[in-house]
Amino acid sequence: MDLYDVMRTTFAAREFTDDALPDDVLWRIFDNARFAPSGGNRQGAHITVVRDADVRRRLAELGAAAARRYFAQLRAGENPWNSVHPSGVPQEVIDSTEIPDTFTAPIINAPVVLVVSVDLSVVASVDQDLDRAGLASGASVYPLIWNILLAARNEGYGGTITTMAIAQEEQVRRLLGIPDTHALAAVVPLGEPTRQLTKLRRQSVPEFVTRERFDGPAFEG
Questions:
Q1: Helix (H), strand (E) at residue 9
Q2: What tens digit of pLDDT does each residue of 130-143 get?
Q3: Which of 58, 74, 133, 165 is the most exposed place for a label (fewest CB within 10 A)?
Q4: pLDDT band at 198 (very low <50, low <70, confident <90, very high)
């Protein structure tokens, strides 16, 4: 596929066929995705390839609690898991909130699940002293994850970045033997999508790009 076609059609795939994702294709995906940039070119990311059905089901279960909070806040009109505006939803409401299968089924049903972590001992967390949620460390791992999704799309496969299991990071560490120095970045189900989307809805360039200043004029082509 043309690069721009891949970029414009790589969607969040959550429903997969029963077909396998062979190791040779997965190798090709990794072999190309590995050229993603990372801070200082330290390449501190690690990918754990999970095919075992019981482990995949457990990973889905570990993300369920965070998903319950997500949907409880959504139903209350809040932005879920927002670090700026604390939630006003009572814990008992969160605990009783049911979550749709769409939040667990992808991890359970995908033929392959990638658990991606990053070694915090080699990344530059330059925002660690700011009074807000840290983001800078993600620059050393999320480009790799996105490259994987782009490469998967090019091969006719797809997946999505899920983060709900991060709230249970310690349990995920124990489940997969991830060392304490590593932070969980994402759980990525991969497989052959039941349908391939070709038209995605996104903001137009002038809606989120400005000239010279944040409040500057919209960037027009």
A1: helix 3-9
A2: 999 999 999 999 99
A3: 133
A4: confident
